[in-house]
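User: Second chain of the day. Same drill as before.
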Amino acid sequence: MKPIKRILVLAGLIGAAHAAQALPAASDRVYTADQNTNTVSVFDPSTNQLLGQIVLGNGRPDVLSPLYRGEINVHGLGFSPDHKTLIAISNGSNSVTFIDTATNKVKGKTYVGRSPHEGFFTADGKEVWVVVRGEDYISVIDPHTYKETRRIPTAVGPGMVQFMPDGKLAFAVSSFTPEVDVIDVKAHKVIKRIPVVSPFSPFLQFTPDFKEMWMTHKDVGKVTRIDTRTLAVTGVIDTGFITNHLAFAKVGGQVRAYVSVGGENLVKVYTTDKEAKLVASIPTGALPHGIWTSDDSSRVYVGLENGDGSEVIDPASNRVIAHMPGGQAPQALVYLSHVAAPGSAENLSKRVNGDSQSVSLKAATGPGRGLLVARQLGVVDALDISVFKLKPDTPYTVYLGGQQAGALRTDAKGTAAGTMIGPVRTFAQANAAAAAPAAQRVLVMEGSMAPDPASAVLVN
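Assistant: Same format as last time:
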């Protein structure tokens, strides 16, 4: 009987080995945090297709209900070093949602302070640090218990934090203070403050060799480079209007920086030499925002805040090769390798939203600019408008097709944003004022002036 047992055991081992060999390798995923639909869109980069959405809350205007309990403004994304956990930061409901990447199931949730923005795991995966942008600290969370364990004081308005691979230092940029905080990870303490050119920095990323940290300045359209060894600023690049996020890719043995410039509908490509040089400008859809590179640098993925989807860039040719419709107003975007079964759409919902329609608004004279996007919200629609570089602290009226659609008042910097809810489904894209019929004409008038294209401050 003993030989028979050995044969049976051997047969079982061989069968198990064959079964293991038959299992397909886990495939990669691209995720976007969709602020208006409160979803996380999940894409398959092997097919450039949307697999579905993780619904964390309802879209607007449902979030205004006193009985609403879902997440609001799903905005930031981070992930664990082993890629098994995705975290989604919702700045309207002050939450951090932990998602199992293999199953797309929510496995935990933590509520933190006012208006968190981004979050990331430490290099060893033992802690999650979430910047609480509406206050002045980083919330440290245990990823197993989902409990906040401590707070790290920072400059007012921390915008994002990321870690050096040896786990010793973290770098935190700020959205309200013109500085970078360098943090001793073990001590949970800021050890150096580096002055930078502006107070609004929403994103940072390390070069592939971790010798430099690059950060964006959304308010002034620049990128700052910092040496991670000397902790000194080594350069500032003028990148363009509404500089959002950045990523790096290795192309032909050279490292290139890809910067999403939302106000110009471009991803700009720079060398990473001592003096960075612009080598390409890649046209994209409306308002590129989050951006990330595949592990092998063969693709760069960029989310379109006003285009409600993502686009795929081939770094070898510096052109967009695919468009992937997704959730409304995607913000952060990340690429994770080896996370789920090929083609798996487990626990994902079908796309909850339709496509948006977007136009740019320009001034006949002067530096004024505007961005406008129309989105379906079921029986009604939303018209989101943002204006820039107008007169400070001044009221403006927005007209659509000759009818008043809403009103704005600029802040001290001449900027304003608002959402108008109503039946605007007949709104259509137009690329120039001459091509826009009167019924589709968008006019921004100073004060309460009647609609008149000849005296409009901004037109499409």
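The longest helix spans residues 2-22.

User: Great, on to the next one.
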